[in-house]
Design brief:
single chain; 214 residues; alpha+beta; Pnp Oxidase, Chain A; nine-stranded antiparallel β-sheet; globular; binds flavin mononucleotide
Amino acid sequence: MRKEYSPKPLDIYNLSPDPFTQFGFWFSEAEEQLIANPSELSEANAMVLSTATKDGIPSSRMVLLKCFSPDGFVFFTNYNSRKGEEIDENKMVSLLFFWHNSMRQVRIEGAATKISMTESDLYFNSRPRESQASSALSLQSKTLDNKQKFDSDVNHLATTGKPIKRPENWGGYVVTPYYFEFWQGGIGRSHDRIIYSIDTNSSEKHWNMLRLYP
Ligand SMILES: Cc1cc2nc3c(=O)[nH]c(=O)nc-3n(C[C@H](O)[C@H](O)[C@H](O)COP(=O)(O)O)c2cc1C
């Protein structure tokens, strides 16, 4: 199962000084790679979100990145889910992307906060009715005793034809990063790791870049 990784060595001087721009380059390449070589990991925007309780008990799950900008990385979920409850008590989270075709990993650490209700409405209203109905009726992460009834309620709501309103407990979070790591698998296991961390001595938001041992 040992795989030789593609030789695209990283150098601090080849990377953008802005981690969001650098993320954009890799994200576009991951999408192109997936179109060229579809694999079981077929969503470049699938990411592992890790949260922790206030006592530091961690938990991880996949979510979909919906957009990113210098303001941060946005995903949508149920605010009353386990992840939502954990973010309520501890806003520090991490995101992890793994792009198998290009042998790349990006680690992001930051603080998660809710986006505005208007932005959440905008996204909710763009979703297919089936997804809207499911989000409106799902008590995500709570015990479900009757799956058949839930499915039939979702189906009923989805087919009523009436507009489905975003429930207040469903919406987006934006993760504002203070740390990035870009990892590139290399030949002979000589992998590259470049980190970006915020320079706290600078009055402007400035990113310090460093290389780590693989
Ligand atoms: C590829 C993939 C993408 C997913 N995307 C989302 C998502 O964007 N939002 C979400 O709430 N759950 C998503 N899920 C489901 C979550 O992994 C998880 O089961 C759910 O959010 C409940 O997590 P929690 O109990 O830790 O809150 C996704 C699962 C997979 C496998």
